[in-house]
Amino acid sequence: MLSKRAKYAIKTILFLHENQQHTPISAKAISEAEKIPYKFLENILRDLKSHQIVKSLRGAEGGYSLAKEPSQISVSQIMRAIDGPIALIPCVSEKFYEPCLECTDEETCRIRKLFGILRNEMVSILDKSITDLASL
């Protein structure tokens, strides 16, 4: 299940994309417009900033804007920045691989094969850019 943090992060990036002409936008304005609790949003924005998805500008006219072109930001990037791996089991994760301790042979493990197929299908969809998502 998509975490609330990841959902709010995606909503935030979509909001910044759709309001680029008004950036930077304060966390308070994003919070109010998207109905995201302010303190929760601050933590999300901190994570997005540390992953270079958003950038911030301090001061009275400060706020947040996208750190790169929306076509270069994918939903999967946002999800990984907020929640970590997309794969449902660690042995099929591309970026956060870990072997399963109870597994004796990954090559013949049917569970791994099934969840590998699922992960590949999911990631191909989640690799859509914010620009693609905004057009849905």
What would you say this structure looks like, in words?
It is a single chain. The chain is about 50% helix and about 5% strand. By secondary structure, it is mainly alpha-helical. The chain has a two-stranded antiparallel sheet with strand order 1-2. α1 (about 5-20) crosses α3 (about 40-50), α1 (about 5-20) packs across α4 (about 75-85) and α2 crosses α3. The relative contact order is 0.15. The mean pLDDT is about 95.
Largest sheet composition: 2 strands, antiparallel
H/I helix tally: 6
What shape does the CA trace take? elongated
Topology pattern, helix = H, strand = E: HHHEEHHH
Mean pLDDT: 95
Q: In which range does the helix fraction lie?
A: 40-55%
N-to-C span: 21 Å
Q: Order the strands across the largest sheet as they lie in space.
A: 1-2
Bin the strand percentage.
Answer: 5-15%
Radius of gyration: 17 Å
The chain-level structural class is mainly alpha
Count every beta strand, where a strand is a DSSP E run of 2 or more residues. 2
> Spans of 5+ residues with little confidence (pLDDT < 50)?
none
